[in-house]
Write a structure and sequence with these properties.
178 residues; 76% helix; YP_001051499.1 fold like; single chain; mainly alpha
């Protein structure tokens, strides 16, 4: 993993795109779980938070703080260890989202590592459900590819398109298990 090459303190926008891609790969699972539970307002909160990351602006730090506090009150975060089924896998998505917003609030290498680790932990948790898919190594590979693409000057749209495809694929895998 070459996270230190992103230097979030020098390029907070690039760091925000990286974490947005991590969240994009994970977000579908929590959105699906919340929809299954009949919580459309929660789905809207998750989508708004993701959009905040993709459309990052220097002035968004306060908006990100507010959204982080809102996430901390969401079902997945308040129930946490008691979750079972799809919501248990959704919790991992919320943790990636929360830590991604933390990178916008304070763009440090430590926060970037936290988000990266949350995304890898989420993939590892999913791998426990679907061992044949090697989701942890796929997430690590995606993160490395995102870093290389950002360093080459790739646009956020490119990373988002790729992350959306992975996110849809993961959701389909998880849905097939329930």
């Amino acid at each position: 993993m070459t996270l230190d090459r992103l230097v979030p303190e020098e390029s907070p926008a690039r760091a925000a795109v990286f974490v947005a891609a991590c969240v994009e790969r994970a977000i579908n699972i929590v959105s699906w779980a919340a929809a299954l539970d009949g919580r459309p307002d929660d789905v809207a909160v998750y989508v708004e938070a993701l959009e905040l990351l993709w459309h990052h602006d220097v002035d968004d730090a306060q908006a990100c703080r507010v959204k982080m506090a809102q996430l901390e009150e969401m079902h997945e975060m308040t129930v946490a260890d008691e979750l079972t089924g799809p919501p248990a896998y959704g919790l991992e998505s919320v943790l990636v989202l929360h830590s991604g917003l933390g990178v916008v609030v304070e763009p440090t290498l430590a926060n970037l590592r936290d988000c990266s680790m949350a995304a890898r932990n989420g993939a590892l948790h999913l791998e426990g459900l679907i061992p044949s898919q090697h989701l942890l190594s796929a997430e690590e590979r995606s993160q490395d590819e995102d870093i290389e693409a950002l360093l080459r000057g790739a646009s956020g749209d490119e990373l988002r398109d790729r992350a959306r495809q992975v996110g849809r694929s993961r959701l389909n895998l998880v849905r097939s298990q329930f």
